[in-house]
Design goal:
Blueprint (H helix, E strand, L loop, with lengths): L8 E3 L2 E3 L6 E5 L6 E6 L3 H18 L4 H17 L1 H12 L3 H18 L9 E4 L6 E9 L2 E5 L5 H14 L3 E5 L5 H14 L7 E3 L4 H4 L2 H4 L3 E7 L2 H13 L3 E5 L4 E5 L5 H13 L9 E7 H16 L19 H16 L3 E4 L3 E2 L2 E2 L2 E4 L6 H4 L6 E7 L2 H9 L3 E2 L3 E3 L3 H8 L8 E2 L15 E2 L2 E2 L6 H6 E9 L8
Parallel strand pairs: 7-8, 7-10, 8-9, 10-11, 12-13, 12-20, 13-18, 17-18, 20-21
Antiparallel strand pairs: 1-2, 3-4, 5-6, 6-24, 11-23, 14-17, 15-16, 19-22
Length: 485
């Protein structure tokens, strides 16, 4: 798989050069080498892609479940056959470690394999009794139409595929815009997979472009029936406003500030194991990442000591080294943002238990303790290897602190009393709570999504079926119906 063959947009089954005057260098975050150069697609090309998607969807909606299943299956086979090359691209383009890259391919394959089970949904007919004599009510699901997909830089293949695969399996067409920084992982490889699978032209379209070229055109186009977006809450609010004005559906997975709660009866060693992984995987650049570690005062000192020891020992550096656990942040802007948060915390008097350092785009772990839960440090989605540890006086206070955030994506509770843990889990205002585990969990057969400022809608089977289909009532009057006039 050659990088230079992946730097074009995929529109109506053809790989096409962007027509913009602007080019974009996709850069390796670790060594700043250019992976490939993309000529950006224009707004006109975006409109062409949407028009093609509209036409193609009409035929694809009439395809059989077996046809749709075969395409999904073959796309999965492509990823499996090219796994080594794909892992290499993920490492070079996203700065993810080899562990992260392999996890991402695995998650994308899980999404594809689960999507095979969606394909029958639009062929099923549900019969509902009627109070009217001789009437039969049939409830059916129809494809929604054209789905707009916009994905982020952190887990671009998985977070793109979880929209694209179910949408296609349910008879929709897709116009997909990956983050241009990771356009190969988030877009081109997926296009290659569906091209290999024989997906009819126009059902999946992928554009390599930027907001400077297309503005809000993908959001406002009248053919687009649903906008699926994963990214920041600020952008999600903007998309929600536009969608509301235009009466479009949205599914939004936005920012997070996930609490990791260690109760008074927790096993500290197990909690530390989970917290180290859930805080530092992919350098903390995950919406579900642990952002606040809230520890009962009886366990606090032991937890801090063991957590700092483990964080200090994590191998940092070149993501191509299989021993590396922390690689580079995605770009200079994200790194400067992280450094600014660290410096601001220092100025505000936050106590540091572990001071990291900057090495190029790599930031080694920082650990702040005795953090005020209402402080800017605690309330900011850090998206970096910066841990904040907060002391709680009681288990009840720990749960109250967990909810003191505008976000509500993921959360964790550590306790040896599982019944108590499940009861408290229902009190945390997040879409997901994991007992005796860390916050970064995903599966294609669960309702994945957040509350509050973390978004709306749910991914996963069968919940996403409601998002990506139209429910249709067809009644059949089998006997003559007498009317009152």
């Amino acid at each position: 798989m050659r990088y230079e063959n992946l730097n074009k947009s995929f529109i109506n089954g053809e790989w096409v050069e962007g027509r913009s005057d602007q080019t974009y260098d996709i850069v390796n975050p670790y060594d700043h080498s250019v992976v490939t150069t993309v000529r950006l697609a224009t707004s006109q090309q975006l409109h062409e892609a949407i028009d093609m998607a509209k036409q193609a969807q009409k035929k694809w909606a009439k395809s059989s479940a077996d046809e749709r299943k075969t395409v999904i299956y073959k796309a999965a086979e492509y990823l499996k056959a090219n796994r080594a090359a794909i892992v290499d691209i993920i490492v070079r383009e996203t700065g993810g470690t080899l562990l992260k890259a392999n996890v991402e391919v695995h998650l994308a394959l899980e999404v594809l394999e689960e999507a095979i089970h969606y394909a029958d949904a639009i062929d099923q007919v549900r019969e509902i009794p009627s109070a009217i004599e001789g009437k039969v009510n049939h409830i059916r699901r129809l494809p929604l139409g054209v789905v707009a997909s916009i994905s982020p830089f952190n887990f671009p293949m998985n977070l793109s595929m979880r929209t694209i695969a179910p949408a296609i399996a349910l008879g929709n067409s897709v116009v997909h815009k990956p983050d241009i920084q990771v356009g190969l992982t988030g877009g081109s490889i997926i296009a290659k997979a569906f091209e290999h699978a024989g997906l009819p032209h126009g059902v999946f379209n992928m554009i390599l472009t930027d907001i400077t070229e297309i503005g809000d055109d993908l959001l406002t186009h009248p053919h687009v029936g649903l906008i699926s977006f994963t990214g920041s809450t600020a952008v999600g609010r903007h998309i929600g406003e536009i969608a509301g004005r235009n009466l479009k559906r949205v599914i939004l997975e936005l920012g997070g500030n996930s609490p990791f709660v260690v109760l008074s009866d927790a096993d500290v060693d197990r909690a530390v194991d989970a917290a180290v992984f859930g805080k530092f995987i992919h350098q903390g650049q995950i919406c579900m990442i642990i952002n606040r570690i809230i520890v009962h005062k009886d366990k606090h000192d032991e937890f801090v000591q063991k957590f700092v020891e483990r964080a200090k020992a994590l191998p940092c550096g070149d993501p191509r080294d299989p021993n590396t656990m922390i690689g580079p942040l995605i770009n200079e802007r994200q790194l400067e943002k992280a450094v600014s948060a660290i410096e601001a915390a220092k100025r505000d008097g936050a106590k540091m238990a572990l001071e990291g350092k900057r090495e190029g785009n790599v930031l080694t772990p920082y650990v702040f303790i005795d953090v005020d839960n209402s402080s800017k440090l605690a309330q900011t989605e850090l998206f970096a290897p910066i841990a904040t540890i907060i002391k709680a006086n009681t288990d009840e206070e720990a749960i109250i602190m967990a909810n003191e955030t505008e976000y509500g994506l993921s959360s964790s509770i550590f306790t040896t009393d599982l019944a108590k843990g499940e009861e408290l889990a229902l009190q945390i205002e997040s879409g997901m709570t994991h007992i005796n585990d860390q916050t970064v969990n995903d599966s294609p057969n669960i309702p994945f999504g957040g509350n509050k400022a973390s978004g709306s809608g749910r991914f996963g089977n069968p919940w996403i079926i409601d998002e990506f289909t139209i429910t249709k009532w067809v009644s059949v009057q089998e006997k003559y119906r007498r009317f009152p006039f």
